[in-house]
Amino acid sequence: MITNSDKPNKHLNFNLSLSYMKKRTGVAAKIKGFWRILGPGLVTGAADDDPSGIATYSQTGAQFGYGQLWTALYMLPLMTAVQEACARIGLVTGKGITTIVKERYSSGVLYAVVSLVVIANVINIGADLGAMAAAAQLLVPIPFVVLTLVFTSIILLLEVYTNYKVYSKILKWLAITLLAYPITVFIVQQPWVTVLKATITPHFEFSFAFLFIITGVLGTTISPYMFFWEASQEVEEDKEKHLLTKGKPRISWMSVHRMRLDNTFGMIFSEFATWCIIVVGATVLHNSGVHDVKTAADAAKAIEPLVHSFPHAGFLSKLIFSIGIMGLGMLAIPVLSGSAAYSVAEAFNWKASLNLKLNKAKGFYSIIIAATVVGLLLNFIGINPVKALVYAAVLNGVAAVPLLFLIIKISSDDTIMGEFKSGWLSKTILWATFAAMGAAAIAMFYTIL
């Protein structure tokens, strides 16, 4: 016999269901809210692992095994501090880094800064375009020249004619292509004790080969274009959210906290991807006798274990690699050309914003177009496209050193930053970054003598 107390309580079940739905909705809302916070930091972090980054990290894994794996761990606080300082400069002042350099330093310093950024970025654009074309050739038998022209056209059309709000959302989703490497790390049987030890314990070799690659690893991780891009994008965010009043942003510590959350997540995402690429390069390439990544096909072999149980595993690995390289190239090249354009436009007092139409910012967009086209032309001088990626990373490693000095000075100046100037911890890490990158570049050149 069933009593009333034994009967199902419809009201109780309904309330439990409602409570469960609210809990799920609450979690979904939090995830959605967190995703909305992510912006310049995530895009900058993902753009950091561009084709140049993938090639350089793959090369160190193939050439030195786990010998430089520790860089991924120890670069994380350095990279985070640098990008936080750059983002804070843009957020607090409502100005790009070049504008502040122009206001505070001599014209000689200004033109040196702009030249460093533009030259490094154009070479990087060329290397990335070449890598995209080489990756696409793994899938389709189309001439290299045709593919570089196609990619250049698509990127320019998107960057010049697409609404920035739409384009930035596309950029965030393209970052997902980096997941191929973390998945491969956990599919392949790893010597985890060795991997973890190599992650924590620094290893040095005083040779040109070792220092050349480590300068490239530092340069492709802590790159000049990232400094200028993130600062400029924080200014764009200020404008988008109508935070600028008479050219000065209305900033609170809550705004700075959100920026730091965005920046930290982006840098962790970037360095985790870096760690995974080096591990995969060491485990799959180095341990199988591939010690030099010369072609896109060599690099694609690193993710073959991801699909080894599928039919046509070789083709599938090339497909995944190609999609990743093309997606990340689409992500990185607009950042490279955009940061060059912001730098030049600010130096000459041109209107500079991706939110403006072409006819409202002709000078700004002309630099974007010129930087991309010159980068395209660099592919026709006969340099191996994969090797060009590593050379571009090394150039960034050298160019970043004097620019870091300026960023430290600007972010620590209370007449510029006010209450938001760098604290002792930020300054300590920034100076450590400057010293590490300077020492790597000097040591590399010393080994040539």
UniProtKB/TrEMBL annotation:
<dbReference type="Pfam" id="PF01566">
    <property type="entry name" value="Nramp"/>
</dbReference>
<dbReference type="InterPro" id="IPR001046">
    <property type="entry name" value="NRAMP_fam"/>
</dbReference>
<keyword id="KW-1133">Transmembrane helix</keyword>
<keyword id="KW-0472">Membrane</keyword>
<feature type="transmembrane region" description="Helical">
    <location>
        <begin position="170"/>
        <end position="188"/>
    </location>
</feature>
<feature type="transmembrane region" description="Helical">
    <location>
        <begin position="133"/>
        <end position="158"/>
    </location>
</feature>
<feature type="transmembrane region" description="Helical">
    <location>
        <begin position="389"/>
        <end position="408"/>
    </location>
</feature>
<feature type="transmembrane region" description="Helical">
    <location>
        <begin position="208"/>
        <end position="229"/>
    </location>
</feature>
<feature type="transmembrane region" description="Helical">
    <location>
        <begin position="429"/>
        <end position="448"/>
    </location>
</feature>
<feature type="transmembrane region" description="Helical">
    <location>
        <begin position="319"/>
        <end position="342"/>
    </location>
</feature>
<dbReference type="GO" id="GO:0034755">
    <property type="term" value="P:iron ion transmembrane transport"/>
</dbReference>
<keyword id="KW-0813">Transport</keyword>
<feature type="transmembrane region" description="Helical">
    <location>
        <begin position="109"/>
        <end position="127"/>
    </location>
</feature>
<dbReference type="GO" id="GO:0005886">
    <property type="term" value="C:plasma membrane"/>
</dbReference>
<feature type="transmembrane region" description="Helical">
    <location>
        <begin position="264"/>
        <end position="285"/>
    </location>
</feature>
<dbReference type="GO" id="GO:0015086">
    <property type="term" value="F:cadmium ion transmembrane transporter activity"/>
</dbReference>
<keyword id="KW-0769">Symport</keyword>
<feature type="transmembrane region" description="Helical">
    <location>
        <begin position="363"/>
        <end position="383"/>
    </location>
</feature>
<keyword id="KW-0812">Transmembrane</keyword>
<dbReference type="GO" id="GO:0005384">
    <property type="term" value="F:manganese ion transmembrane transporter activity"/>
</dbReference>
<dbReference type="GO" id="GO:0015293">
    <property type="term" value="F:symporter activity"/>
</dbReference>
<protein>
    <submittedName>
        <fullName>Iron transporter</fullName>
    </submittedName>
</protein>
